[in-house]
Amino acid sequence: MNEAILQVRGLCKNFSGVTAVDHVSIEVRPGELHAVIGPNGAGKTTLMNLLSGDLPASAGLISFRGREISRLAPEQRSRLGIGRSYQKTNIFPAFTAFENCRIAAQSRTPRAFHWLREARAYDVVMNLARRALDAVGLAPRADELALALSHGEQRQLEIGMCLATEPQLLLLDEPLAGMGAEESARIIELIGRLAETHALLLVEHDMDAVFQLAKVLTVMANGKIIATGAPEEIRANRDVQTAYLGAAQDSLP
Amino acid sequence: MNGLNGLNMFYLIQLLNAVQYGLLLFLLSSGLTLIFGIMGVINLAHGSFYMVGAYLAYWLAKMTGSLWLALPLSLLIAFAIGLLLETTIFSRLYKRDHLYQVLLTFGLILIFEELRSILFGNDVHGVAVPELLNFSIPLTDTLSYPVYRLFVTFICLTIAGFMYFVIHRTRTGMRIRAGNSNREMAASLGVNMPLLFALVFASGVALAAFAGAIAAPISSVFPGMGNHILIICFVVVVIGGIGSINGALIASLAVGLADTLGKVIAAEYSAIAVYLVMAIILVWRPQGIANRA
Amino acid sequence: MPNITLSRTPLIVALLLLALFPLVGSTFYLQLGAKILIMAIFALSLDLLVGHTGMVSLGHAAYFGLAAYVLALISPKYEAANLWLTLPAAMGAAAVAALIIGALVVRTGGVYFIMVTLAFAQMIYAVFHDTKIAGGSDGIYITVRPELNIAGFKPLNLENPAEFYYLALLLLAFVFWFLSRLLHSPFGRALAGIRINEQRMRSIGYPVFAYKLAAFAVAGGLAGLAGYLAACQFGFVNPDILAWHQSGIVLMMVILGGMGRLHGAVLGAFVYITLQEIFSTPAVLGDYAKHWQLAMGALIVVIVLAFPHGIGGLIDIALRRYSYRHPGRIWRDAK
User: Fold this and answer.
1) How large is the ipTM?
2) Which of A68, A167, A171, C268 has the highest count of CB atoms within 10 angstroms of its CB?
3) pLDDT in tens, C275-308
């Protein structure tokens, strides 16, 4: 029995009167890519923010590997093994692509405040950064400033930074947003590979990618979960079709 | 019986002083916090406007012989100065980094201080309380309270009430509140932002100057008077939260109380009392009382 | 942020020129030179915070002045203090104060941080100005400069202007070297990351509060080094050394010189003090020389309005053009 690495029970988030996330319960298992879909404004990104710790929850429980993390700060959750990529590209524009991954990899250095040796002398960190950059296919662009990268390359870097922290659970928030077909294919392939070794929670609008990759689908609307299950079940689900027909008719294949 | 009465009266006097000081601070900080909240500008020279008002009052009172004339004139002149400064200098700061705002307004402080030195010298000058108000209300055999201070409190309350009215009951006030919470949205809804900014800025300057003018008979006019009170205003804005008028009012009164209480308990350490209050608030609620950072 | 420091050659040339200066300078210029070197240390300490970590502190003079006061307070009345004891004590006091205040203020950000750093510095000013702890507004005299006594051997006599200048130069070189190493280290790179995107640093696992607090304390300690030297040189300490005017001036030096580049802070100190000297000599402004701050203020306003990237930015643009034609000569690549 594959034990759930992430367990969420009754998670809620209220913003002075508006309930953005309404009693959401979800589980993520390693090797089982779990995708969250839903119309715009369903609360998917808010859910991600609650899981990564960028937003404090109003109520509910989040457990990671059996340990409750609902009250932990983002940096503490990251150190436990949770990695997050952002929908709105959230990189270090003034650093090179390599430096972006290096600084992410460095966060795992055992003694934090090393101040005498040059940062580039730490082989372990440098190698980890190189591997992460390779994994997302950005090795040839390593020495470019991140702000000079194309939008798609920045999205790749976004994931690369995530990987450089060697997480066990990956929270990917619309990684394919704004990408062209060729870049998307590369990233979809990468995500597929990652799903074999990591636990992955993916929020996406690209339905082709979702149905290609996901083993479990959760559909959200108006902050609530309206269905969870295998992709075929979801496709046939009446409530899901209503939710989508209400929003965008042709987004469900 | 007399001793107890005297003690009560003593505390009453301290309370009245605290409220008066707090309300003066409110006049100053409300301008500062609005300029902050709406235009996003940190203005170190705000204390200089207080000084400008005080020296204007001193000079006009000397020239016209009447503080009654000097007060409204100072207000109008300060408003005009505010408009001038906004259109020539401050409007270019809105988009700049806080760092450069700090630098430029620091330069302005230097300019204002030196101009004051050139025009009025470096001595302390007194300003006479108007004849009409130049008496005290007796409280006990030995204690009495100056009517002018009551007058200052009264005026400040009136202005505060007027501000509340404008901000919460008028269209202009609505636009100000809109600009305060979301600048871009207000602009896209058709509010004339440049005009609004100019008015808010000039009003802030006028308020600060008026505070200086009306306080002049109490505190006198002297070099550096603006800088000290500016930092106290910063404490008020930190405690009350940027952009919050209500917060500024509560915080001003709290600071007024802390300062007065500090003077009663230990005169030498009274200045520190205010900062201690701020330190406590920072430990308890790092984002300030009313707003988030 | 590719270029943090100059490559070796320009640095060595600059150091050499500064070291040879006492051979040609008169006592007056030696004292002025030492003053510039001391303020350069002060500016470098603030640059660590402002330029490199993105924390705009408007109360840095508190640590500068605190160290000066510590020397004044523990200095014997008519004898020389021992530098080996008093300097660490002064720097330690400044660093501890920065640690305590930092613990309170580092959690705030943006404008709040600017205001609370200013307020706490003002609190310390109030302590020294209003109370009798350290002579109040009258200040304290340091009649004899500290001595560097190692078992009877005195390598430098600090009462001699040239030798004091060399001490200041040595310490400036040390601080410059120390900060250069720091900024290229993992700790320094983390600070740079915090400046660029603090929220992302948190989300990849950095305890940002701890890093910022450490930077604040180190900056405070280094400011204390400058303050100690300033007290040595001037021989007199009064509350003005902690005044927010002082905090504003050092911030000005950092911004004008161009932030985030160590040599920029040194340049800023040099330019400011030179301008101050020029404006305050009667030859330039005549009778208004004592109102030189008016000219300084006006210059600042003009510079901020006219140059969005500061003076340092201009120099950088010129140097960048040169370095494209001669790669490697000016910048040490710090990718």
Assistant:
1) 0.90
2) C268
3) 998 888 877 767 777 788 898 999 999 988 887 6
